[in-house]
Amino acid sequence: MDRASTGTYDPSCFRLFEGPIPAAPDSKIVVRTLLMSLDPTNLNWLKLDPQLQAIPFGVGDPMFGVSIGVVIESRAPSHAVGDVVTGMWGWRRFDVVDPLFVRPAKSATEMSFEQQLAIFSHVGRAAAGGMTLIGEVKPTDAVLVSGAAGATGSLAAQIAKAQGCRVVGIAGGPDKCEFLLEELKLDGAIDYKKEDLREAIHRHFPDGIDLFFDNVGGEGIDAVLTNMAVGCRIVVCGAMSQYNISEKSNLYGVKNLPMLIFRSARLQGFVADFGPRNQIVDELLDDLAQRGQLVARTHVIDGFEKIPDALTLLLNGKNQGKLVAQVSFD
Amino acid sequence: MDRASTGTYDPSCFRLFEGPIPAAPDSKIVVRTLLMSLDPTNLNWLKLDPQLQAIPFGVGDPMFGVSIGVVIESRAPSHAVGDVVTGMWGWRRFDVVDPLFVRPAKSATEMSFEQQLAIFSHVGRAAAGGMTLIGEVKPTDAVLVSGAAGATGSLAAQIAKAQGCRVVGIAGGPDKCEFLLEELKLDGAIDYKKEDLREAIHRHFPDGIDLFFDNVGGEGIDAVLTNMAVGCRIVVCGAMSQYNISEKSNLYGVKNLPMLIFRSARLQGFVADFGPRNQIVDELLDDLAQRGQLVARTHVIDGFEKIPDALTLLLNGKNQGKLVAQVSFD
Q1: What is the CATH number of domain A11-105+297-326?
Q2: Are A52 and B266 inside 8 Å of each other by CB?
Q3: Neighboring chain A residues of B253 at a CB cutoff of 8 Å
Q4: What does the pLDDT look like over B35-88, one tens digit per residue?
Q5: Residue scoring higher pLDDT (B6 or A133)
Q6: B94 min Cα distance to partner chain A (Å)
Q7: Which of these CATH numbers, 3.50.30.60, 3.40.50.970, 3.40.50.720, 3.30.450.20, describes A122-274?
Q8: Domain regions of chain A by residue span
Q9: CA of A291 to nearest chain B CA: how many angstroms apart?
Q10: With a threshold of 0.90, does the pTM exceed it?
């Protein structure tokens, strides 16, 4: 791949800067960050050509992400000190935010902040929009999800289950597979560290796959391409197995793309911003969460300064659920 | 790839059988074949799992294809002896055909039979339906077509030109590239035998590709994946470079699929049967042909018995346009 996606992650690319708490300019608010979402997206932003990013930033700029925070100063009529808001701002303990780009958080008694970040961020949108708008999931679909114990995959799998689909998940290790079966109530689990992926996929889907929600890339796509039902949709949400490879020659080469022809099938990539259709996606997430049909495991890192090292958990798959950082003030 | 697409073609897999001219059963017609379309599809049918085929056939059955023929016996009220029809029937000098599955050919004075087979068969449908229904071509699109001097590619390129698009074609050798520029009036031509494909593609599309109509597979897809505009559509019509490879390890591995994510792009395969939308596709072809906006080069093989060897032209790219076989009666 061009420079967009190769290169290994080194935590030392982050530096901790200290400075005064900012003051709010006219019409802006200052938030104190409580909880921050750490995502594969952040790793990609470190590598992508700035011209290609939704949020262009350069060396020296703070990383961005979805956070929950409390308003400590407001020069906007819409917000008062003490309001708890969620939105995208810099990885900072305190940041100046345009109130147009935040929305109220739910109260922590209604839903924990960790759950809110796990479900109502771009991660939830990727799962819900990817499954419905990109994957066009139908109740009769036989659905496979990779990275199914991960932040996005676990939501995507539950959304498909809530639609009535038969859903099988791929994850690494017996604990994660047990989570898929026991907590997410999926219809099957494939342990890619133990089983032959292609053989297992064929065994779980004797009539072919209708929808593959892929967070991993590489070998799984090749295996699915040879086991598609006619009209199969492969939703390319992530490619975690390919993100941390420095040598192009080590990237996985997908050989079975011509099968798309014979099955009238498609692979579709997307970013989790559906423009005017975000509202549909958010309503679906809200509805499922209120019915108790979305379970999110969260993996909480305690401490702002631990974030750079914690991001490596996303790469080695050692996070136990949606990775979030609690910002301590000690 | 699984057995669906590997394996080399050997002309000796065909045998010539001789038998009496068949008689028409009730409600059927007997046609004498005049001209037959020879297509990559035929090569794929030799290798695909019979269960996956639109027209299942086994060892000993005749190959099928789109042909033009004249009715020599009719036991159907819809057809009279002497009618010239086009449709899909066996690779036979004489075949029994259900009149429901044929339609009248245009008169040879209005349009030569070769042109009719080149434009109004599944080849034309693949080009027109692939470009419009699958690729959703828009006048503002920057379009790349591979195999652009071939039967499908040349029509697809002209259809995009007729929509007002800027169109660049990929072909092998100076003659084919001259054909693209001089006869098809494309905006650019890339000679993949002489130029570095990736470099040439990037040079011709400084702002990225909106639509790639691919007949070839392999390296071209990888090169395009790194040079897509946001929302790019890759129409996977064929994968000629991959069809005649016997060892899986020699299939090309596409490494840049994760770019689909960052560009909200898709790869979509299809077969050239659009069900109820076939009519839209046929009307588009008819309209463009009548305006003189579709030029088809045809490569005519003279003689039924030469067909097995002629199919190798499709594999080595030595056919000069749409391959058709004239069925002689000497």
Answers
A1: 3.90.180.10
A2: no
A3: 252-255
A4: 999 998 888 788 765 555 556 677 888 998 999 999 999 999 999 999 999 999
A5: A133
A6: 30
A7: 3.40.50.720
A8: 11-105+297-326, 122-274
A9: 31
A10: no
